[in-house]
Amino acid sequence: MQALLLAFLLLLFGFARLVETKETREKCDYNNEQSVASCLQPMLDYANRLQEDTGMQFPLHGGSIFNKLCEIYHQFQECVEEVECSSISIEAVAASYGYICGPGMPLFERHAACFAQVERDTSYMSCKEAATKAMTDAQKKYKNAFGDPYLKAMCSAMDGYLRCSHPTITNTCGNEAWGLVSTVTRDSLRVTMPNCDMGNALF
């Protein structure tokens, strides 16, 4: 599935302290967020291991890889089910994986083989490499300063990636597949970077 999810997940805790939640419930305190972080660690570990094994920061997840991610996501849900406060970490993970590991799973499975094919396309690889470089440069430049300049740089990198990869994904897998990419991207950005407008890049 759409590549940006792993990047979102790995940067989740940097974004968490910047994003204002619209939930009416009381925000989680430090101890509760630490419990959530512990529940999230297996997913972060798997994402990191995937990047190390493939050397890719922006994989269009193949079927077996994504099935494993969804399995870990459901374990995360069970782990945090007793958390009653409002956690930006829980919201961000749900926004990134709730749809494609739930009602959108049949649609993803229908296009999984094609997404894997796109992953090997030279045009897509160029898009991925350019976006990876832009994100890496932003991380080096701003280090742990997750302020507006950093978020704008990350938003710009993702915008460039989407605009670049759109033709390849659409031409190879069709409009329905791109619609899936758009849905998941919008859901994830709504929580992780609400001020990042990807409207033009997603249509």
UniProtKB/TrEMBL annotation:
Q: Which residues form the T20D4.11-like domain?
A: 28-189
Q: Does the keyword Signal apply?
A: yes
UniProt GO cellular component terms = nuclear membrane
| A Pfam family recorded for this sequence | DUF19
The stretch of residues making up the signal peptide is: 1-21
Which keywords does the record carry?
Signal
The superkingdom listed in its UniProt entry is Eukaryota
Protein name (Swiss-Prot/TrEMBL) = T20D4.11-like domain-containing protein
Source species, please? Pristionchus mayeri
